[in-house]
Amino acid sequence: MASREELAHLLRRATFGPRVEEVDAAEKAGVAATVDALLAPAAFDSRSDAGATRTPPPNQADPVAALGRNPGREQRLTAQKQQREQVAAVELWWLDRMVAADHQVHEKLTFFWHGHWATSVRKVKFPLVMLGQQQTMHTLGPGDFAAFAHAMVKDPALIYWLDGHKNTAQAPNENLARELMELFTLGIGNYTEADVKAGARALTGWAVDRARNVAVINEKRRDTGEKTILGRTGTFGTDEFVDLLLAQEANAKFVTARLWYRYASPEPIPDDTHGRLVAAYGPGRDIATTLRAVFTDPAFTGTRGHLVKQPVEWAVGAMRQVGVHPGELATTEQQQLVRALRESGQVPLEPPSVGGWPAGSAWLTTAGTQWRLRTADLLAAKASPAVLDRLTATPANQRPDALAHVLSVERFTDRTRAVLADAAGQPRRMLALALASPEYAVH
Amino acid sequence: MDLVTRRKFLLASGVVGGTALAAGAGAFTLGELMETTAWKRIGGPRTLVLITLYGGNDGLATVIPYGDKAYPAARGELAYTGEQVLRLDDRMGLNPKLANFKKQFDAGRLAIVRNVGYPKPDRSHFRSMDIWQTGQPARPGNSGWLGRWLDTVKDGDPRLAVTFERVLPPVLAGTTRAGAAISTAGMTLPAGYQPSLLSALGAAVEGEPPMQARAARAFADLVTVDQMVKDLPAEKDDPDDEPAATATGGRDGLAAQLEVIARCVEAGVATKVFSASLGGFDLHADGRSAQESVLKDLDGAVGGFVDRMSKSARGQDVVVAIYSEFGRRVRANASDGTDHGTASDMFLLGSPVRGGQYGEPPNLTDLDDGDLKFTTDFRDVYGTLLAGVLETEPARVLDGWTGTMPRLLR
Questions:
Q1: HSE-up of A264 (CA within 13 Å, CB side)?
Q2: Is the dihedral of CA A47, A48, A53, A57 positive or negative?
Q3: Are A227 and A202 in contact (CB under 8 A)?
Q4: Chain A: nearest CA to B172, how far in angstroms?
Q5: B299 falls in which pLDDT band (50, 70, 90)?
Q6: B49 in any annotated domain
Q7: Which residues from chain A sit within 8 angstroms of residue B54, using beta carbons?
Q8: Confidence of residue B159 (pLDDT cuts 50, 70, 90)
Q9: Whether residue B181 is found in the same domain as residue B193
Q10: Residues of B with CB below 8 A from A360's CB?
Q11: How far apart are CA A358 and CA A310, in angstroms?
Q12: Over the stretch A338-389, which tens digit does the pLDDT of each residue have?
């Protein structure tokens, strides 16, 4: 019989910031039924997600694409400014979606993939191209990794980000080939420098039209010659190269280890656990099935407290729990929220590098602490009356426990309890302190 | 935060005597503040400013072997002529955008260590950066070389190794200690929050999970490090820069980071190591103009900093060291860019530096699969900095490595 603590742990990892009623329901249902419900095919079907339906992605024509053939300087600058506003709108929409979605596992997994195939709008610039990538990750991320990888390697944003459009038979460019092997499919040490060079040749020929969000092969730029990649020789092109990568034993090991690293623990993955994850990934490479193996592995329970919440996870979870919806905030508050995240070093669409965002103690700095304190204050100020009422309905001396309940914190230490108890008369302040606390920073 | 708020904070925190503050209002400097605390300098007067260039800086477009016949052949349209470079001698010249570096070179305050690398070079940004930051080429571990230096300091205070980057770079994380990442915005607590809260939330609790304990310690550290930060320039909130490079880490605004560091040095803070960074060097395409643009940023920021440092007694003890995770492939890739390579140059600047060119220049015709063969191990330079700036035996930090280049420093 699983304890409430174990179910709360499961929900904290699988979703963004579980709410009290979600933990209550899970406790009633038990682990097996909860995992089933979280990972059922229906849980990845957006049509049945009322929260996602309420928050459709912004659908705006690209102003730069709409420019005529020879736009004037003013026209161009205006279009570029509109484009930046659209980027900001997409970033805010994604945050809003993460908070609103009922299919939380799906949303969190999409954000996981964003950190995996980390592409930044700061180079790509075109919002529709970035949104297109986000939709691909959302649609294909939970299923067969093979189909997903084949789609991603032809994704206009990823190609542009890694100079794939400049990779031609005459002038191979290794950027995409290297990261495809190192960061996206195999992991370091599972290929040679010769494989990078040959892989780059296999990926030649792509041209990207960012204004229309399409990537097409230009046959004249494609290297049709023979290549030797990972011990196999042939006139490989993009799809054949991806198939070669997926056929490597390293692929299953790598992808499953990445999931464990972000969903369970940054500690070295135990061999038997890794074996079970690889078996779950199997020939179908199904990511939802692999996630099930992560959440049900005997070692999973022992990972409580191992992960530091990334700023987006922290903020989205907090907003779900205290009842703040980014889409409903005033424009200035929305800007404040995105600015706060930018200051933290994590904004959707803007990973700092193709390696994604850091993990663990990198977020636990003095600057990060100040950031959490300020942002917690901002969120507490917008907390829903229902959450505050729940606190004030509790006798003052029990409010720290009530807060732990609301925020799905296993327990506050005496240190933090004392700080919270001092603020028991001011619910918003108490809430902010709890959100900023060391206990809430990890999970 | 503005000065008034800061004073109020200091009064409230009880860190310094309230009477001293009241009496000295307006005439209070950061340096005086520092002297009133128990926190004192350790060792000698020198300070290290380590600048990381993320993305792999193209050494051959930075220190240009214009006199080498193999150079224009390899670089094609990316190549510079002897008329374009800032000549160092009859073979080598600096990129035309490095005018301030040239000035420092002429003044004898710039040392260029040529063709620096490590055995079995790795062309992954992340692995190679791990290698440089850990100082462990064979098998990069979990601690940075400057973090391990902090480990060797008795009661190593996080303020001894400081960065103004948003997250702590691995180079500053030791096995038992870690440096401090400080927001250049200074400490701003939301209205109504007392600083004493920070100390309360920062108290250690026996038996709490390690990451939670670390989160708590960050609260405690915040109280101590904030004493260093006065009304510093606000952070830039500008997503509209348009980098040509695939981002591979590092942050922009090197000049802003160095500005804060300059003020800290001039104020006499006890920090021994500052870490700063600049990203944008991963130029697989559009190489020449993009390379010039990042070098111009580097030149402006570093040139201004070194100049400023040369004008104060404390600044004259500062050594700037600049490195990147690797150089670029010798032959251009014909997207007018370059792919990941191996050896590159390191730069040391400052009054304690003995200017000149050190080590073997790169040999463009004796290549390892298209890449330069390194001739100076970066640990020799680290060893020099550990011994000559941080007064620490290099072997203690660099897993037994004893090599140094003592001539680099005066």
A1: 26
A2: negative
A3: yes
A4: 11
A5: very high
A6: yes
A7: 353
A8: confident
A9: no
A10: 211
A11: 8
A12: 988 988 889 999 998 888 998 888 888 777 888 899 999 999 999 999 999 9
Structural contact between residues B251 and A345, judged by C-beta atoms closer than 8 angstroms? no
Give pLDDT tens digits for A393-411.
999 999 999 999 999 999 9
Q: What is the pLDDT of residues B182-207, one digit of tens each?
A: 765 555 667 777 778 888 999 999 99
The total number of structural domains in chain B stands at: 2
With contact defined as beta carbons under 8 Å apart, do A319 and A379 qualify? Answer: yes
Phi, psi dihedrals of residue B51, rounded to the nearest 5°: -115, 120
The ipTM value here is 0.91
Q: B121: which chain A residues are within 8 Å (Cβ-Cβ)?
A: none
CA distance A128 to A86: 9
B112/B153 same-domain check: yes
Q: Give the long-range contacts of residues B99-106, CB within 8 A, separation 24 or more.
A: B99/B299, B99/B303, B100/B299, B100/B300, B100/B302, B100/B303, B100/B304, B100/B306, B100/B307, B101/B299, B101/B302, B101/B303, B101/B347, B101/B349, B103/B303, B104/B303, B104/B306, B104/B349, B104/B355, B105/B355
- CB contact residues (below 8 A), chain B span 11-70, against chain A: 54
Distance from CA of A19 to the nearest CA of B (A): 22
- Name the residue of chain B whose CA is nearest to A354's CA: B248
pLDDT at B214: 87
Residues B11 and B135 in one domain: no
Question: Which structural domain, as residue segments, surrounds residue B19?
Answer: 1-29+187-228
Q: How far apart are the C-alpha atoms of A288 and A294, rounded to whole Å?
A: 10
Same domain, B74 and B163: yes
Query: Is B34 inside a domain boundary?
Result: no
Contacts of A433 in chain B (CB under 8 A): 197, 201
Read off the CATH number of the domain in which B270 is found: 3.40.720.10
Looking at the fold, whether B141 and B202 belong to one and the same domain comes out as: no
